[in-house]
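Lecture 7 notes: from sequence to structure.

We start with a single chain of 307 residues. Read the sequence below before looking at the structure.
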Amino acid sequence: MNLRQVVAVGYGGPEQLEVREHDPGDPGDGQVLVEVRAIGVNAWDVKSYSGAAGDDPGKLPIRLGGECAGVVLGGAGSAGSEVIVHPVSGAYADRVVARESSCVPKPRGLAWEQAAGLMLTGTAAAHLVAATDVADGDTVLLNGAAGGVGLYAAQLARHRGARVLGTALPDDHEVLRELGVEPFDFREDVEAWVRSQAPDGVDAVLDAVGAPPVLDLSLAMVRDRARVATLIPSAAAAERGIAQLGFGDGADPGTELRAAARFDLLQGVEDGWLRVVVADSFPLDRAADAHRAMSGDHGAGKIVLVP
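Now the structure, written as tokens:
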């Protein structure tokens, strides 16, 4: 059996992705070998080789993929166990070696494609909701409501009892309404709309966009500037005093919070109130097409790869 892995062999666009033969090696202490059934595609996968995060030739080839779902073949875990794996490195592969602590049980009724798209953006959304202290009775503005993070943030905020005003393209409004979100086209006059919906301002802003005009709008709409947070760290966010979450300079990675949130997400799926929306799936050897779709208008939800 020829095992494969997708790597970026240079910096630039999706044309830099290459499928190579891959030997994952044997699992060591505290590790498991997982046969991958589906892989979550995320914005960082694209950004890692785009040059936006630097272009050090010494880091090539770049292994892609921070989350997947599959079956344990051996190692520290129970062989045959169906698991979701996050965090992990190099998940764009037929098989991957991961820490046993990165594996959580896959909910029985969850499809492989859904399982692969649950954790990375789901835990980021949980961090965003926690950092802005969303509570019952709040009205929150969610920038980028139909993206991978946005759909989870919307559901987590709604589960806490908040009213969610969400910006997204009109094609994505139906799914947002199904999740209890009040959607609006971000290309229109968002400020006027928000003021019509919340004349005294919103209680918190959850940002998954990061553009300076959106950040300024967020600050203008919120009653307490301390309850604005973004998942897109930048100099613009820092200059405005906005809480930055994630892995950029000066951002709070929320490592422990995100690790704990994995089990809350699983419980949400098991209880039936948390929905995983998959926008599209591609074969592993078409990872470049998946990345092109990531950069375009791919509809609401996650893009996944299937080996």
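The mean pLDDT is 96. Keep this in mind for problem set 3.
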